[in-house]
Amino acid sequence: MSSSQNTVDFIVGQMSKAGDVSYKKMFGEYGIYCNDKMVASVCDDKLFVKPTIRGRDYIGDVVEASPYPGAKPSFLIPVEKLEDREWLSELIKITAGELPIPVKKKKTIRKIGKKNG
């Protein structure tokens, strides 16, 4: 089951005080970015935040779950916390601050055709 656009728009709006927040559709679900770092995902209309030490301390009683089969566990944010704009923005700001700057990957060009020889 994929997430609804309305849910993603609401969640992104709630964390807008964290910085430059955006999202990208990925495999029917959504990756959430803050200041160009992927900090969370929305899967099945639930928010999963990447785990960090300070994020764990901030949340307190953490529930971890995988956003999809085979994924590393993330912090599953309770629905009632999504209503708290200040709390959610602070969590995302903390998470983005702890995650490393993403490394730009070089694009590889594959050539298709016959091999000579």
Taken from the alpha-carbon principal axes, the silhouette is globular
* CATH class identity: Alpha Beta
- Can you tell me the number of structural domains? 1
The largest sheet, given as strand count, sense and whether it forms a barrel, is: 6 strands, antiparallel
Oligomer: single chain
Strand content: 15-25%
Question: Which regions have little confidence, pLDDT < 50, spanning 5+ residues?
Answer: none
What is the arithmetic mean of pLDDT?
A: 91
CATH level 3 topology: Yope Regulator, Chain: A
Give the strand order, joined by hyphens, for the main sheet: 1-2-3-4-6-5
Total beta strand runs: 6
Distance between the termini: 49 Å
User: Percent helix among the residues?
Assistant: 25-40%
Number of helices: 4
Order of helices and strands: HEEEEHEEHH
Radius of gyration: 17 Å
Q: Give the CATH H-level superfamily.
A: YgaC/TfoX-N like chaperone
> What's the architecture in CATH terms?
2-Layer Sandwich
Structural class: alpha+beta
